[in-house]
Write a structure and sequence with these properties.
It is built from 28 helices and 16 strands. The chain is an alpha+beta fold and 750 residues long. Strands 1-3-2-4-5 form a 5-stranded mixed sheet, with helices on both faces. The termini are far apart.
């Protein structure tokens, strides 16, 4: 049967189950009395997300070979759940389903449960997200997928409640249905799994590119720009409708499009450049005013549930802070504005306050901050009017409540129930100018008083039960932050930020690099490094180190430090190309070559929340090649890196031309790419004999760079011969003392 029909039937057709004895009322009651005692295999894991499930009555396995061997031995499907520790909806499903004895009983009986942390295996997450998008049209976390014991997917969905509610199927209905189909229609499942896997393989093959590339042309960039302009929310900024993500990749593309440099590859018109920068500026300012911005502690949440940026899901990601800091720095480079500096300082304040772990003596950055606390989602960030009155001076309460839309009844609603709660999310409802006019005080005084109020409320918030941190130090996200800090240190002339980036880069080298095997690890936590680094790890850190090299050079760093950064970068580049290069079609795979139980080795240059690893690799490899080519002794390596960068562009060029909006970072990478001309070792100037000096012919010069060195020899040979003859006719006392010439000018001095 068709894959889509099979998936929909799995959800909707539950009536036949009671026709079989195992699912009769008597059998169900009898089974409920049987207690299956599973072994949960997550207790020894390092990942915070996996450890959050270590006490579930579900017999979880991490992603490993053993889980699939058990599935084959017991002839059961694999239930794969993918999530991350700071996700609100992952917490909801863990609380409502995986802690529940009834659900656990069904899962342990019908399948082999496997848990994946997105932070550990983003490559597998990307692959199974493609499965869910193809089958359902959308995807998200938590991701729930059923696989055959051979690793082929046959059904996928996202968050599931315990019981079916309306059109939302419940896990207690789906799992018995899967078991019945597995036992009674096994051939149909196998056929559907192969069909779905084939469709995914075709889809990935289409986006994986080929060697037969084509030149990336400017009309593709203009088409992408027009799509962004068409989808831009003129009133509130950003793109599309709720839920609204910041889409930093789109902002970074627009920043390059708005570049007024006459050498810009885009050749945008003045109106296009103006529109591009206006979209960036409106989005950043609207986000700053909204509830997605933490007005007390700094930084920004992952996304907003509404189009006005008012109500976020409250988790914070390190990668988002890095992308926004980079956006602020590049915007300031184009058009200097105090707002962009304020935005950058706000992010770095959050970075040093919430993403640095002083307890573990780590110089790396944590990966995320949870959305939930023991008091509920976002409660850490919410305020009642009475709570604010108890903290602020009486004379400032009215001013602050007017500034940040604090209402007695609250402005924050329950997302599921739709009911209004008494809590308030802080967002800027009025500007300083408006408040000054309304309260008849000076604008400067308003700013000072509001800043003092924010400080008092932040101190009070620090005394609340804090959200949990995902304190994994991840190679890729730290690499992005290293690059963002380095770029911002130059844009805003702040050397402390460059020093912070340097400390982090050296710390990663210390904890994640194994010099004995010349390999890197992706993750560090609790004093241990683990998980082989992925393509996106190498590409992101390589890009970050190259930004750090450029910032160090502009600051006047010495040759030794600069050479150390180049060696660092070359090690990353060599590992990246050695481990993930596709010899058949070009480009970089996302997954290891020896990965077991994965039906497809995934490769793509499509952007997600951050630039794709292939795009980052093009930018970084091209920059590394241009720098190494400045010295003849490293020009061979330079040529190698330049060739790989060009091959990546060629690999995905057809895909980009067909759908440029999905490849914005690759368009930017192409705009930065420069044709490579290998620098040659200059040949020494030809040494002329006395006989040659007396000839009228010009000496043959084979190297243009040597031409300047022998230019002095281009005086008339006859004139010099005449001067020498006149000198020899004089008496020795009259002759001037012959001076030794520079070897570069003549061989006569030798």
């Amino acid at each position: 049967m068709p894959v889509n029909n099979f998936a929909s039937n799995l959800i909707s057709e539950t009536s036949p189950l009671a026709a079989y004895g195992e699912y009769s009322e008597e059998a169900t009651v009898a089974k409920s009395r049987q207690v299956i005692v599973p072994v949960n295999h997550l207790a020894g894991e390092i990942s915070p997300h996996l450890l959050q499930h270590a006490n579930n009555p579900v017999g979880w396995y991490p992603w490993c070979q053993e889980a699939f061997e058990v599935a084959k031995r017991e002839d059961k499907p694999v239930f794969l759940s993918i999530g991350y520790s700071s996700s609100h909806w992952c917490h909801v499903m863990e609380r409502d389903c995986f802690r529940d004895q009834e659900v656990a009983q069904l899962m342990n009986d019908a399948c082999v449960p496997v848990k994946i942390d997105v932070s550990e295996r983003p490559d597998l997450d990307a692959l199974f997200m493609e499965v869910c998008r193809l089958q359902n049209g959308s995807a998200g976390h938590p991701l729930s997928i059923f696989l055959t014991p051979e690793g082929l997917p046959f059904f996928s969905t996202t968050w599931l409640p315990k019981r079916t509610a309306g059109q939302m199927p419940g896990i207690t209905d789906i799992i018995p249905r899967v078991k019945w189909l597995w036992l009674m229609q096994h051939d149909d499942i196998d056929r559907a799994a192969k069909e779905l896997s084939g469709m995914i393989s075709d889809r990935v093959k289409n986006i994986s590119g080929s060697k037969a590339g084509t030149k990336i042309k400017r009309f593709s960039a203009r088409e992408a720009f027009e799509n962004l302009r068409k989808n831009f929310d003129v009133r509130w900024g950003g793109f599309g409708v709720a839920p609204k993500f910041p889409d930093y990749v789109k902002l970074l593309f627009l920043l390059k499009y708005a570049d007024e440099n006459k050498d810009s590859w885009f050749h945008a018109t003045a109106q296009e450049r103006y529109d591009a920068f206006t979209m960036i500026d409106i989005t950043l300012r609207r986000m700053w005013r909204g509830g997605i911005h933490d007005h007390l502690g700094g930084g920004f949440s992952r996304y907003s549930t509404d189009e006005r940026w008012l109500v976020p899901h409250f988790e914070k990601f390190l990668s988002d802070q890095a992308m926004l800091l980079l956006t602020a720095a590049l915007a300031h480079e184009l058009k200097q504005n105090a707002f962009y500096k304020l935005l950058a300082e706000d992010i770095v304040f959050a970075l040093t306050r919430d993403f640095c772990d002083s307890d573990s003596h780590s110089q790396g950055f944590r990966s995320a901050i949870d959305a939930d606390t023991i008091e509920g989602e976002g409660r850490y960030y919410l305020w009642t009017e009475d709570e604010i009155k108890s903290v602020l001076p009486e004379g400032d309460v009215g001013l602050f409540c007017a500034a940040y839309a604090v209402l007695p009844s609250g402005n924050f609603g329950n997302e599921v129930a739709g009911s209004q709660l008494s809590y308030n999310i802080l967002y800027e409802a009025s500007t300083v100018t408006e408040l000054a006019r309304r309260h008849n005080i000076k604008g400067a005084e308003v700013g000072v008083r509001l800043a003092a109020c924010r400080k008092l409320l932040l101190d009070a918030r620090d005394r609340r039960p804090a959200p949990l941190y995902d304190d994994q130090v991840l190679m890729d996200w730290n690499g992005l932050m290293i690059g963002a800090l380095a770029r911002a240190s130059v844009a805003f002339e702040n050397p402390d930020w460059r020093a912070m980036a340097e400390r982090t880069a050296l710390f990663l080298q210390k904890i994640l690099f194994d010099s004995k095997t010349n390999t890197w690890r992706r993750r560090w936590r609790l004093g241990k490094s683990g998980i082989d680094a992925l393509a996106q790890d190498y590409a992101a850190l390589l890009w970050g180190v190259m930004e750090l090299y450029k910032a160090s050079k502009k600051s006047g760093a010495g040759d030794k430090q600069l050479n150390d950064w180049l060696k660092y970068a070359q090690n990353l580049a060599d590992n990246l190309l050695d481990k993930f290069w596709d010899e058949n079609s070009g480009g970089l795979f996302a997954t290891y070559a020896n990965e077991q139980n994965v039906f497809l080795r995934y490769k793509s240059a499509i952007d997600v929340a951050i630039p794709s690893s292939n795009s980052l690799a093009v930018i970084a490899l091209n920059e590394l090649a241009q720098i190494l080519n400045q010295k003849p002794e490293t020009s061979e390596n330079a040529k190698k890196y330049a060739d790989y960068a060009k091959k990546i562009l060629d690999c995905f060029s057809r895909n980009l031309t067909e759908n440029p909006s999905e490849y914005l970072s690759l368009i930017v990478a192409n705009s930065l790419w420069k044709p490579f001309k290998q620098k040659q070792e200059p040949k020494p100037a030809k040494i002329l004999t006395d006989e040659e000096l007396n000839r009228d012919e010009e000496p043959e010069i084979t190297n243009p760079e040597s031409q300047a060195q022998v230019q002095p020899e281009r005086e008339s040979r006859r004139a010099r011969s005449s001067r020498r003859a006149n000198s020899e006719n004089k008496s020795p006392s009259e002759r001037p003392e012959r001076r030794t010439r520079s070897p570069r000018r003549s061989s006569r001095a030798r």
